[in-house]
Design brief:
The chain is mainly β and 432 residues long. It has three domains: 70 residues, Sandwich (Immunoglobulin-like), CATH 2.60.40; 86 residues, Immunoglobulin-like; 231 residues, Galactose-binding domain-like (Jelly Rolls, Sandwich), CATH 2.60.120. The strands form six sheets. Strands 18, 19, 22, 24, 25, 26, 27, 31 and 32 form a nine-stranded antiparallel β-sheet that branches. Strands 17, 20, 21, 23, 28, 29, 30 and 33 form an eight-stranded antiparallel β-sheet that branches. It is globular.
């Protein structure tokens, strides 16, 4: 049976949310080493009916910068040294909240690895977090990568890196390297020992498995329906050989007559109604899981008909609702949004999202459940271009008591509700 919590709530629904304000800092990371000028990027939300008035940055308790509105983007020149900085928001109701960000500023070229520590013992998959700085190239850092035993395993764009790599048990010599736009490079060596028994588990080829269910959604409330009339229609066909990468793709389609209607395709992987043989009937597995990776390839020849494409992970346990909702707004502005579970609203990341039409796109989304059950959005990577988010949100509630983990793939209709089809392939889900 479908629970109230086991459905799409990834558009702005009228749900009760706790009164709160947040400041989400995407740059720099707390505890990171950076070059000067230091790039600060942050957004704020407030339950004040009039919204956020302004945002500012304190450096060692001195207010150094103020910007009007609920977004902040600036570069601060700072001399080499360690700083306790704070990004704060002030709302029109007299309230304020802040997020502390401790940083070390350097004028030296280098790569600074926050995770994993050199000579550390870790479990797979291993989370790599690093920043870099180049003093010799005015154009800055182009990309960063990870070598494992002299083999390049990962490359991401920009001067920061946040990714997780799978390892078998053993000892590895790894290197985190940066390449600048002037042809230069720098690296830091990180030796790790990966232990057995704590590694992540991966469910492979989910697009071709059983358990998929489709639901229609009508604006403005976007409640799910199974018999929806002609306003929104959909279909799903598995085991498609062309177009396909593996020979086992799945076609997902949307149509209808009601503008801006959506179709949610969802699959319960772990817990109730598990399609993977993981019912967790004794409720012993879910409480141990904290890290998740949504990794899939998608294809469409009708990209201009899509309002947005959604790629979501949901976790429900102990009456909590943790929804890592991620959408690529296509007709909606070519930008990535992420979902604020507690306040039931989309939050713009400011990161661009330009999928390829008539070609395969590779999306990887890494998220984490923190020790206090907060939702951490770590990174989104599209076709090798990684956006490091490090955005944290509070969980929502799940009064129905649904217990499980689901993955979603959602097609959003545009102003004409123009029909289109997409294909998923090599859809893998890693958890630990």
């Amino acid at each position: 049976m479908k629970s109230y919590c086991y459905r799409s709530i990834f558009l702005s629904l009228a749900l009760t949310a706790s009164a709160m304000a947040t400041v989400n800092v995407t740059s720099p990371w707390n505890g990171s080493t950076v070059g000067s000028p230091v790039n600060y990027a942050a957004t704020a939300t407030s339950t004040c009916s009039r919204g956020v008035a302004s945002m500012g940055i304190y450096v060692n308790n001195v207010l150094t910068y103020v910007e009007q509105g609920a977004t902040l983007s600036t570069k601060l020149p700072l001399s080499p040294g360690s700083y306790n900085t704070v990004v704060e928001e002030w709302d029109y109701c007299g309230g304020a909240t802040y997020t502390p960000v401790a940083i070390t500023v350097t004028n030296k070229t280098g790569v600074w690895v926050m995770k994993p520590a050199n000579n550390s013992s870790v479990t797979s998959p291993v989370n790599y977090m690093a920043t870099s700085n180049t003093a010799s190239c005015s154009k800055g850092v182009a990309s960063m990568g990870v070598y494992v035993n002299n083999v390049l395993k990962y490359v991401g764009q920009g001067a920061s890196l946040n990714t997780s790599l799978s390892f078998s048990p053993g000892t590895y010599n790894t290197v985190v390297e940066e390449w600048d736009y002037c042809g230069g490079a720098a690296y830091t060596s990180v030796k790790i020992t990966v232990s057995g028994g704590g590694g992540g588990s991966t469910l492979y080829g989910i697009q071709g498995s059983g358990g998929w269910v489709g639901y229609g959604e009508y604006p403005p409330d976007y409640n799910t329906c199974t018999i929806c009339g002609g306003g929104v229609t959909w279909s799903m066909y598995q085991h498609i050989s062309s177009p396909s990468l593996s020979g086992n793709a799945t076609e997902y389609s949307i149509g209808g007559t009601t503008a801006y209607s959506d179709v949610l395709f969802t699959n319960p992987l772990i817990g109730q109604n598990s399609s993977q043989g993981l019912p967790d009937s004794n409720h012993t597995l879910l409480p141990t899981l904290h890290n998740f990776t949504y990794d899939a390839y998608f294809y469409t020849g009708e990209l201009s008909n899509s309002q947005a494409l959604e790629f979501d992970i949901s976790m429900y346990f102990d009456s909590l609702s943790l929804i890592w909702g991620t959408q690529c707004r296509v007709a909606g502005g070519n930008e990535w949004d992420i979902w604020d579970s507690a306040n039931s609203q989309w939050i713009s990341t400011g990161a661009s999202c330009y999928p390829i039409n008539n070609g395969w796109n590779h999306v990887t989304i890494q998220v984490q459940r923190e020790s206090n059950n907060s939702l951490l959005f770590q990174s989104i990577t599209l076709n090798g271009n990684q956006t490091v988010l490090n955005r944290t949100f509070s969980p929502g509630s799940c009064p129905s008591g649904w217990w499980g983990i689901t993955v979603n793939y959602q097609l959003d209709g545009d102003y004409k509700q123009a029909a289109y089809s997409t294909y998923l392939d090599n859809f893998n889900f890693t958890y630990y």
